[in-house]
Amino acid sequence: MNHPAELAINQYLEDATSGKSTMSEETIEQVGKDVMDAMRRQFGSGKGRDEFRLRMSNIGKPTCQLWFAKNEPEKALPLPTTFVMNMLLGDIVEAAFKGILKEAKVDYNDEDNFVTLELGEHKIKGSYDLVMDGAVDDVKSASDWSYRNKFESFDTLKKSDPFGYIGQLAGYAKASGKKVGGWWVVNKANGNIKYVPADGMDLQEELDKLESNIDTVNANEFKRCFSPVPETFRGKPSGNLVLNDSCKFCDYRFSCYDIEELPSKVSQARTKPIVAYIK
After folding, report:
1. Of 218, 243, 268, which closes a domain?
2. Percentage of residues of the chain with pLDDT beyond 90
C-alpha cells in the first residue's frame, strides 16, 4: 500500500461486506446530493458542451490536440453515445469514494476547492478533488486495463499521459499552495481501489511544461507532438508505420494523419488486433 488511508478504506469495506459497518444518514445524504449535482451537470443544461477554453483539466494535454480543439473542433470524431454515461460514472465513483473516506474516519477536505493557477501572465481556473494530509489528490475511475497498466505507478503514467493527468495535478498543487499528492484510482470493472503517489514528480518541470503549452496554444502554433512508429513483428520491422500509442485516443487522429484502422497486417492470431496504419 502507498498511503496510510488505504488500510482504513479496506478495513471499512471489509466490515461493510460482512455487515459489521454501516453508513450514516448524513453521509448517504451528502453522497446523494453530489450524485444529483452530477446528474444536473451531465443532463440538465440542454446545451452542447462548452466552447474551447484553457482550463486546469486540459492544459496538460498535447498542444497538437489543443490546437484542433481550438481551431477545428468540427473535425473531432463524434462523441460516442456512452460519453455522458462514462462521465457520470466518474462523478458517481468520486461521490461514493468520498462517502467511504468519511465513514472510514479518513480526514480530507474538499471545500473551497476552486482555484486559479497563475503562470506568468496566464490565469487558469479549475477545481481539485480533495486535499489529504496537506497534499492535493485526484480521484480517477479507470478501466481494468488502465488500472493495471497505466496507473501501475507514477513512472508508467508519465510514459503515456495523453489526458494530461500529471500536469493537471501539478497545476492544482501550485494553485492551492499545497503539496503534490497523487491519484486515488477506482477500478470500474471490479471496485478495487489503490493510491498512486506522484512521488517522482518534478513540480517546477511540470509547471514549465504547462506554461509552454499555454504559450503555444495562445500563439496558435500547430506542431505534432508525436511521430509515427515503425511496426515490428518478432523484433523485426515490417516496413509499415503505425500511430503512436499517445495518439490512439485522440479525437482528431484522422484529421492529423491519413490513417487506416485495419486488422494487423503481421499478426498470425485467429482474431487479429485492429491497428492504425499511417498511409
Report:
1. 218
2. 91
Query: Which residue shows C-alpha cell 482528431?
Result: 252
Same-domain status, 124 and 165: yes
**Are residue 165 and residue 234 in the same domain, yes or no?**
no
pLDDT score at 207? 97
> 223 lies in a domain?
no
CA of 150: how far to CAs of 88, 140, 163, 231, in Å? 22, 12, 12, 22
Nearest CA among 61, 28, 27 for reference residue 217:
61
Residue 166's pLDDT is what?
97
- How far is Cα 173 from Cα 179, in angstroms, rounded to an integer? 6
Nearest of 96, 99, 107, 166 to residue 132 by alpha carbon: 107
Answer yes or no: are the C-beta atoms of 201 and 181 closer than 8 Å: no
Number of domains in the chain: 2
- Dump strand ranges (E) for the chain: 114-119, 122-127, 130-132, 135-142, 179-187, 193-197, 229-233, 236-242, 259-263, 274-278
Of 60, 48, 15, 37, the C-alpha closest to 225 is: 60
Predicted structure pTM score:
0.91
* Burial environment of residue 279 by CB neighbours within 10 A (0 to 12, 13 to 18, 19 or more): exposed
